[in-house]
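P.,

For your records, the input lines for the assembly:
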Amino acid sequence: MNCTRNRLPASTSHLNQRILHLKNGSGPTKVNDALQLFDEMLQRQPPPSIIQINQLMTLIVKMKQYSTALSLFKRVNMMGIPSDLYAINISINCHCRLNQVAYGFALLATLFKQGYPPDLTTYNTLINGLVLADRVFEAVELFKKLLIEKLCDPDQFMYGSVINGLCKAGHTIKAYELLRYMESGSCKPVVQYNTVIDSLCKDKMVDHALQLFTNMTEKGVLADVITYSSLIQGLCNFGRETEAARMLMDMEGKGVSPSVVTFNILVDSFCKKGSVKDAELAVQAMVRRGLNPDVITYSALIDGYCLRGEIDEAEKVLDGMVEKELVPNIITYNSLINGYCKKKRIGKR
DNA sequence: CTAGGGTTAG
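Structure tokens returned:
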């Protein structure tokens, strides 16, 4: 085996380091840093490899800058740097995220024309794109076609997208059946259990969700923080707080730590029931564990106080969140507006 | 040596 790395020019490894640095960094400057690095890259001589471009593009896509990524790819093309399957798959995903599945399929056609065979990721991305566009029926059709024509061997991602789509469209039972079908094959579900369990909870079939949870555990599939959070949410929504509390203890016992999301579910549930006091206690508990309340935590609390007409308390929470440099959003303000309206109505009586 | 899926607030 030859050692390619040693033969790369120094500048290339420097570039790789900067990409790596961007990957681990964070903050608002990150997007600009990535774009600046991209500009520098394109001005280099010799031009960067498509691999390096794809790496940087992946970062830009992770920052949800889909249209930026697409226009950058356009520039890359115009510079005469040839595209590859990875680049096209990334572009397809960008179009799908921008709700332009049709363009995604157009790129599929380009792949065929250029004699590149699409791969599993290409199809996964397109199926997921159809699901994102609420075209679940077409997603299922494409999935079936790929199976029947043996165009690819579905993996976790493909099953995941179709199962997710079926759940979103309210066909939880169909999703459940597909999960069972998946289990019968070589591709073992993990995340897919979570999707179906959450959907069963949202469909008010909490007991079925609990049953599926038991099933997965018996099969040796480990429930994670998302599984437990979904179940806790389901139980809380139907007044089964005692069981939710037991579930919280159960997860801790299994070594799964509740996350900010788990606590947010509890905080919101207490607030909706009108017991903001308990919600505040839950917030204290999460802080004690070193978890930082976020915009969702504070918004849920604000809504809780507003529902009770305690607008002064809501304002205190708002001040508290601004002190923590958290930015209230449209949902936060909506609760406050509702709170003010409520107060006004009561005042008029 | 780069692409794709699951949980929370109005």
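Two observations worth noting. Residues 330-348 of chain A form the longest helix (19 residues). Residues 53-68+82-152+159-168 of chain A form one domain.

Regards
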